[in-house]
Write a structure and sequence with these properties.
By secondary structure, the protein is of the alpha+beta class. It folds into 2 domains: 31 residues; 283 residues, Deoxyribonuclease I, Chain A (4-Layer Sandwich). The chain contains 8 helices and 15 strands. It has a 7-stranded mixed sheet. Strand 13 and strand 14 form a beta hairpin. Helix 3 crosses helix 4 and helix 5 packs parallel to helix 6. The longest helix is centred in the N-terminal third of the chain and has 29 residues. The protein is globular.
Length: 317
């Protein structure tokens, strides 16, 4: 090999090494970014009426597990289930832990709804957690007169957790609740109380607020939350909103697979939400409303009367 040939070979080797170095640098930079899948899901409480109408929990629970597994939720809140239901879900999921309490604060309650938080133990450390009731004075134990304790309506519980990313070290809070459905004044006051509690508990840390809020985007309670200096509906910040069909952007399906445009055009059935504090702006990759179904004896069904919401959030080192 003459000197010219040697020079050419060395030049090629240098170019390849340079390219590999660029690729390695790019991959290293990309590895510093994480996409976390955050979700909220009203599971529908177990009751005899649903058993009779073909929506029994024992039939649905496996398909709810399938939804969580398919979309690989990293951390999510649930609303409405009884203790046996959250226990069933935890038992069927690998790598998750949960915490929370029911509205009546009984650990094994089968008469009141849980609002629990599930999270992947491989991803997060739970640094702290607690709960409070949506009621004047913000009690941390269930009020005695539970069904009249929230401005004349039922006091619902809000579960919260403080989490730390095990690798990147990010710390954030998650709040999960279910607003009372029968009384608008209760929802309005609950929205104001939530803002106060997030400020008090999370302070300056990023926070996520989620749940079945039983209100549409035109309501006063929604405006209290979304027009505040603290929170924004993740739907508004998402780079991508799925499905493409906006009629399927509602979250309460009432067990119906087919969309009735007259019901949902005004958004009256978008009642489940994931709100974010301002630190998350520009970090919402997508907002998805999941419409997965299952078949039982040839009949297509919904796993719950609500669709889960999944938001993909970008964490950067």
């Amino acid at each position: 090999m003459n000197s010219r040939e040697k020079g050419f070979v060395l030049a090629v080797i240098s170019f390849v090494v340079l390219c590999l170095g660029c690729k390695s640098s790019s991959e290293k930079k990309y590895s510093k970014e994480k996409i976390y899948k955050v979700a909220t899901y009203n599971l529908r409480y177990q009751n005899k009426r649903d058993d009779i109408s073909g929506h029994a929990w024992n039939e649905r629970k496996g398909f709810i597990t399938r939804v969580v597994t398919k979309y690989d939720f990293d951390i999510f809140g649930v609303q409405e289930p009884f203790f046996n239901q959250v226990n069933d879900l935890l038992g069927s999921l690998k790598g998750y832990q949960r915490f929370g309490t029911s509205d009546d604060e009984q650990l094994n309650s089968k008469t009141n709804h849980h609002h629990d938080i599930f999270y992947k133990t491989a991803l997060f450390d739970l640094l702290d957690n607690g709960s409070f009731w949506l009621s004047p004075g913000v009690p941390t134990t269930a009020p005695e007169n539970l069904y009249q304790a929230a401005w004349g309506g039922k006091a619902k519980v809000c579960t919260w957790g403080k989490f730390k990313d095990k690798v990147a070290g990010h710390v954030f809070y998650l709040f999960n609740t279910h607003f009372f459905y029968e009384n608008e004044e209760v929802r309005n006051n609950s929205a104001s109380l939530i803002l106060e509690q997030i400020k008090s508990i999370a302070c300056d840390f990023p926070a996520i607020f989620m749940g079945d809020l039983n209100l549409n985007p035109y309501s006063k309670a929604y405006k209290i939350l979304n027009d505040s200096e603290l929170l924004e509906d993740s739907y508004n910040w998402a780079r991508i909103n799925e499905p493409k069909d906006t009629l399927r952007h509602h979250t309460f399906n009432n067990w119906q697979i087919d969309v009735n445009a007259t019901d949902v055009t005004r958004g009256d059935r978008r009642i489940d939400y994931i709100f974010l504090t301002k630190q998350w702006k520009d970090k919402v990759n997508s907002h998805s409303i999941v419409w997965d179904t299952y078949k039982k004896e040839g009949v297509e069904k919904m796993p719950s009367d609500h669709n889960p919401i999944m938001v993909e959030l970008k964490f950067s080192n």
